[in-house]
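Run log // design_07
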């Protein structure tokens, strides 16, 4: 069943969060991208046209939903927690969005080649600060943090010139030098990059 007046759900984060079960709403303030940030990042990532965006650690897909609603890009979220994927895809269907999807899996097993834009909101952080964990459903450790970080940096290096990257609350200390930061917003928390070489 589609939502009536879906644009109304983007008036505030609180209104948007009401689409989800209470236990998901409680995670929003720390773990889900604020709508204004999501829209700014999505518009940057899709500015080059023919955009296929991947969200690494997508949670329930808030970024993908907002991005698909406000731009012409195609948004894929990769998420380890199957229950988040199920809940998020249900909301995507309620919006009637055909350019957004969540897939269940680990991004280390995801082929990055089809994508020309990447969104990353610090999804590895729970491996080093367990108090910030979403739940107990996945393994967490400093070793996994290092593994995921090194894999992401390697993938960023392999992406073609012109790849767009948006990072929010980045915990990784360095983005590869081949990426040039073009913009920053929201007290420098959202950084927007393009791969130059």
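design_07 sequence
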């Amino acid at each position: 069943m589609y939502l009536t007046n879906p644009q109304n759900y983007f008036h505030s984060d609180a209104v948007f969060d009401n689409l989800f079960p209470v236990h998901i709403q409680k995670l929003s303030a720390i773990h889900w991208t604020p709508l204004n940030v999501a829209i700014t990042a999505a518009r940057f990532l899709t500015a080059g046209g023919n955009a296929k965006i991947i969200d690494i650690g997508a949670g329930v897909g808030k970024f993908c939903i907002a991005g698909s609603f406000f731009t012409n890009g195609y948004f894929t979220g990769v998420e380890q927690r199957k229950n988040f994927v199920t809940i998020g895809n249900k909301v995507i269907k309620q919006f009637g969005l055909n350019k957004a999807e969540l897939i269940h899996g680990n991004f280390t097993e995801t082929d990055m080649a089809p994508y020309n834009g990447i969104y990353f909101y610090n999804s590895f952080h729970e491996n080093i600060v367990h108090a910030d964990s979403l739940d107990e459903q996945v393994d967490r450790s400093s070793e996994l943090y290092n593994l995921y970080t090194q894999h992401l940096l390697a993938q960023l290096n392999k992406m073609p010139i012109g790849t767009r990257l948006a990072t929010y609350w980045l915990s990784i200390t360095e983005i590869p030098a081949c990426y040039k930061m073009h913009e920053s917003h929201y007290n420098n928390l959202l950084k927007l990059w393009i791969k130059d070489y």
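Helices lie at 13-17, 22-25, 28-31, 35-45, 62-70, 82-95, 142-158.
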